[in-house]
Specification:
Layout (H helix, E strand, L loop, with lengths): L6 H68 L2 H24 L5 H27 L4 H58 L4 H32 L4 E6 L9 H7 L3 H4 L10 H5 L2 H12 L1 E9 L5 E12 L5 E10 L1 H22 L3 H12 L6 E7 L5 E8 L2 H13 L10 H7 L3 E3 L4 H6 L4 H10 L3 E9 L2 E10 L8 H57 L5 H33 L7 E4 H11 L1 H7 L3 E5 L4 E4 L1 H18 L5 E7 L4 E8 L31 H11 L3 E6 L5 E8 L18
Parallel strand pairs: 11-13
Antiparallel strand pairs: 1-4, 2-3, 3-4, 5-6, 5-9, 7-8, 8-9, 10-12, 13-14, 14-16, 15-16
Helix pairs in contact: 1-2, 1-3, 1-4, 1-5, 3-4, 10-11, 10-16, 11-16, 12-15, 16-17, 18-20, 20-21
Length: 758
């Protein structure tokens, strides 16, 4: 018989058994916790995969929208193929998500995305059928900007909501994983304390039983790290409790430009613009996140190179076991292009409404340049082709008023050189847009005409340039120019596509406005011509009939009658010349035949020609001139200017002196002054008299039909000159014309006659 165990033996055996049981329980607990941790890691991996698939869903839907727009508006089968492929990828991604997202509210939101996408597809198919039925392009664009745009927005809103929900679930999963890790660490320490007595057995047990689980956990952690490093569209990084960078993924390096070695340990304030740092925004964001547990915000951030981008930022507070914050997890993505695309659609709609709102071309181009600044660029210029073949600025806008004045000065004083290797004339010649996202000082200097021009443009600041032609059919009517001044702001291909769309619509709208204005002017011109030509013709017929009935003895009366008839024929000839110039101005076909002309000699000839008419009107002609005022002008057109002004002065200043002066008006300009002492012009009418078909009621029986002064203004401005009037009622009127002179033997360019002035 075996000897019975002693108490000590039993106690020792019991102790050993208890120790073994305790070690087994401790090991089992650790294994269970590690399994839970591994499950959490796997769940985080799955949640991250859901976020990436939803991002893929957004991209495929955007690809389908872009291809669908191209096919619906152009009918190109290439877009149809792209649209079909994009939708197949969308459906495949959706089916994969549907199998995984079975919990609420994600399942319901995913179904909402599917319904919204189906509505958009049906709207696109309806639009395509409209196109196949021959619906006009303008109607197609209205349908696209209406119902199709509504379905697209609903789909995008559903996708964004689904994306936010999955991101929130991922953030919660990360938080739960960290809490589980802390629990596992505590229990592991406890298990280690309980197993101190049996270190050898515990080591053997851990080596044999827990190694596979540890390997799986390490593999799961490695997969999670690979996932984080593989995310390129998101910046994922950790901050410590003081807001300094602790970790960095490749997505953060791609978005922000910093390498991991140079950003670790840096404060998060380096990602904020200087004005936000000065206002304390970085610290305020961390305080809000610490108070609420998480923070979602959107705002401008700064890359390493100083360029700005619009960021969507999620901040989650990381807490220790006692609930104290130990750091922050940040998820950042660049949404600049998405927001720019949304704003581009809004601007396109605003521009479309603008073209239908205004009939006046000048007001249209001014408003068009205004809406481009500062949304698309810092500055916007519109150049139009003149009748003489030059490019002349019609509208200029800048975000800063003082720079707008410099830009106007540079545009007017220094027309674009046709021989420039790049720039406005290159766009005119080729009819294709030109984009320079980064304009160096050397490149800028090559496109300008001299040091003074360069100095002005350096004050304005040019860092990025885009030139887009205004084309109607095969004709290029002008160039749309966009400039940026800030180093961090660059014009992109996205801006080019948008501006090309706006420029196409603008060119068509301006051409329609010009045709409408010409049609209206033609109707008015017929009435005015019939009236103005009828008066001298009737008078001439009456005089000739009277002469026919006179006896030859009445020789003096015959002379007087012939003189009156001659005056009427002169008046008729002047009216015909005015109407001819008006016709050329209206059609944009007025061409200047420029040559060196002495202004004093020309005015003296006209004064001598009017000597007899002045004597008949009882007006004493007083003429004074400075010599040597020579410019490159059209002699015939300037003769018309002086003739019309002098004719008006004799008509309205009858019986009183008329003064004509030619003098210098500065270093490079000449001034012509024609003054009468007649009835004068009321202040409220002084600006109106230079418009077409405007007449001054104070003229009484001498009032005409507003052609003379309008033509004078057009001819003066065609020579790059100005005209103004100084007058008061009953004190006469002084018309002042200023024209550019030739500088040091150089030839001035012919001034613009822009066809848009109908």
């Amino acid at each position: 018989m075996a000897r019975p165990w002693t108490f000590a033996q039993r106690a020792g055996a019991g102790f050993i058994i208890s120790l073994v049981v305790a070690l087994v329980l401790a090991g089992t607990s650790v294994v269970a916790l590690l399994s839970v941790r591994a499950n959490h890691k796997a769940r985080i991996l799955e949640l991250s995969r859901d976020v990436l698939d939803i991002k893929q869903l957004e991209r495929t839907f955007n690809d389908k929208v872009v291809s669908g727009r191209g096919f619906a508006l152009s009918g190109d089968t290439f877009f149809a193929q792209d649209m079909s492929v994009a939708r197949e990828r969308f459906i495949a991604t959706y089916e994969a998500l549907k199998r995984r997202l079975t919990q609420e509210p994600l399942a319901t939101q995913l179904e909402a995305v599917s319904h919204a996408e189906l509505e958009h597809e049906e709207a696109m198919q309806a639009l395509i059928m409209e196109r196949e039925d021959g619906v006009p392009r303008q109607r197609l664009e209205q349908i696209f900007d209406g119902h199709v745009a509504d379905t697209r927005r609903r789909a995008m809103d559903s996708l964004r909501m689904l994306h936010h929900q999955t991101e929130a679930r991922l953030s919660e999963g990360i938080h739960e994983s960290l809490a589980t890790d802390r629990s596992a660490l505590g229990l592991s320490l406890l298990a280690g304390s309980l197993g101190l007595a049996g270190a050898t057995m515990l080591a053997w047990t851990l080596t044999r039983k827990l190694r596979p689980i540890q390997q799986e956990a390490e593999a799961s952690a490695e997969r999670f790290q690979l996932l984080v490093e593989g995310v390129r569209d998101y910046a994922l990084f950790l901050l410590d409790a003081r807001g300094r960078v602790e970790s960095w993924n490749p997505g953060a390096e791609r978005i922000m430009g910093y390498r991991e070695a140079e950003i670790l340990g840096q404060p998060s304030s380096v990602f904020y613009p200087p004005d936000a740092v000065a206002a304390g925004i970085p610290d305020k964001d961390l305080v809000r996140a610490r108070r609420d547990g998480r923070l979602h915000t959107e705002g401008w951030r700064v890359r390493k190179d100083g360029s700005r981008y619009l960021a969507d930022v999620n901040v989650t507070v990381l807490q220790d076991a006692r609930g104290q914050p130990r750091g922050f997890a940040k998820v950042t993505r660049d949404i600049t292009e998405r927001r720019r695309a949304e704003r581009t659609q809004q601007l396109l709609a605003e521009a479309g409404g603008l073209f239908h709102q205004f009939q006046d071309p000048d007001q249209t181009v001014a408003e068009l340049t205004r809406i481009m600044v500062p949304e698309v660029a810092d500055a916007c210029l519109l150049y139009l082709l003149t009748a003489s073949g030059d490019l002349w600025p019609r509208a200029v806008a800048h975000a800063m008023p003082e720079k707008e004045a410099w830009l106007w000065d540079a545009a007017r004083r220094f027309p674009p050189p046709p021989e420039s290797p790049w720039g406005i004339w290159q766009v005119m010649r080729t009819g294709r847009s030109e984009l320079k996202s980064d304009v160096s000082p050397e490149t800028l200097a090559r496109g300008l005409v001299g040091p003074e021009h360069l100095s002005l443009m350096e004050k304005v600041g040019v860092r990025s340039y885009l030139g887009v032609p205004l084309r109607v059919g095969r004709q290029t009517r002008g160039v749309f120019v966009l400039l940026t001044s800030a180093p961090e702001r660059r014009l992109t291909v996205t801006d080019q596509v948008f501006v090309e769309e706006v420029a196409g619509r603008a060119a068509l709208a301006l051409d329609n406005a010009r045709l409408w204005s010409e049609a209206q002017d033609a109707v008015e011109l017929i009435g005015v011509a019939a009236h103005d030509l009828g008066n001298p013709l009737n008078t001439l017929q009456l005089l000739l009939r009277r002469l026919q009935r006179m006896e030859l003895a009445e020789e003096q009366k015959a002379r007087d009658g012939l003189a009156a008839a001659l005056k009427q024929t002169q008046r008729l000839g002047q009216l015909l010349h005015n109407l001819l110039d008006l016709s050329r101005l209206s059609s944009g076909k007025l061409m200047l035949d420029v040559a060196p002309v002495d202004l004093s000699d020309l005015v003296h000839e006209v004064v001598e020609r009017f000597a007899e008419q002045a004597a008949e009107a009882g007006c004493k002609l007083e003429f004074g001139a400075e010599l040597g005022l020579v410019g490159r002008w059209d002699r015939l057109r300037l003769d018309r200017v002086v003739t019309n002004l002098l004719s008006n002065a004799l008509k309205f200043g009858r019986g009183r002196p008329v003064e004509v002066r030619v003098e210098h008006a500065g270093v490079a300009r000449a001034r012509l002054c024609v003054r009468d002492h007649g009835v004068g012009i009321a202040p409220e009418a002084q600006r109106r008299i230079f418009e077409r078909f405007e007449r001054e009621p104070s003229g009484g029986q001498h009032a005409g039909f507003g052609l003379g002064l309008y033509i004078v203004r057009q001819l003066v401005e065609a020579h790059c000159g100005t005209i103004r009037v100084e007058s008061a009622p009953s004190e006469g009127a002084t018309f002042i014309v200023e024209l550019p002179l030739m500088l040091l033997g150089s030839e001035l360019r012919e001034a613009p006659d822009i066809p848009l002035h109908s």
